[in-house]
Amino acid sequence: MSSVSAVETFENFMEELLNLLVSNAIHLFELVGVIVLIVAGIRGVINYIKHDPMVRLNLAKGMALCLEFKLGSEILRTVIVRDLSEIAIVGAIILLRAALTFLLHWEIKNEEAEAEANLNKEVRELKSQQISEQQEELDDRNEN
Fold first, then answer.
1. What phi and psi values does residue 82 have, to the nearest 5 degrees?
2. Please, are residues 109 and 47 in contact by the beta-carbon 8 Å criterion?
3. Is the pLDDT at 2 greater than 60, yes or no?
4. In CA terms, which of 9, 76, 108, 134 is 20 to 30 Å from 118?
């Protein structure tokens, strides 16, 4: 009888340890996610005031990183839930956050493509301007 009691005691200890570790990890992930979102928001406001053309892209990246931490905390939460209704709620939250993460990554991809296209356009315009200036210099030399 004492060996069963020792096994049960060990199982209870391990379960409590797991709950403690996972609960603390969930809180840590949630905290980091909130801090990332606050920092991204503050940087977004500052960059908006400075008229930075990359403000939307940088803000979206910060929000995506925040959601990654929040999603990680929800995945950890699945370890300690016991009820089927709790699992359903956590599953719905995970799906919602995954969908938001997907949409943010899609927007980031489009913003990066747009920024690259604008940069390439500026480079082409500068090269065209340099070629025009060089051609004018050559024409001026040939006239003299």
1. -120, -30
2. no
3. no
4. 134
pLDDT in tens, 53-99: 889 889 999 999 999 999 899 888 888 888 888 888 888 888 998 89
Q: In this structure, what token pair is assigned to residue 80?
A: 């300690």
Q: Compute how many other C-beta atoms are within 10 angstroms of the C-beta atom of residue 37.
A: 18
The band of 101, judged by pLDDT with boundaries at 50, 70 and 90, is: confident
Ranges of each domain in the chain: 2-143
Q: CB of 47 within 8 A of CB of 98?
A: no
Torsion region of 66: left, alpha or beta (phi above 0 gives left; psi -120 to 50 gives alpha): alpha
Contact in structure between 62 and 40 (CB atoms under 8 Å):
yes
Q: Residue 87: what residue type?
A: I
Place of tokens 């995970």: 94
65 and 40 Cβ atoms separated by less than 8 Å: yes
DSSP the chain: -HHHHHHHHHHHHHHHHHHHHHHHHHHHHHHHHHHHHHHHHHHHHHHHHTT-TTHHHHHHHHHHHHHHHHHHHHHHHHHH--SHHHHHHHHHHHHHHHHHHHHHHHHHHHHHHHHHHHHHHHHHHHHHHHHHHHHHHHHHHHH-
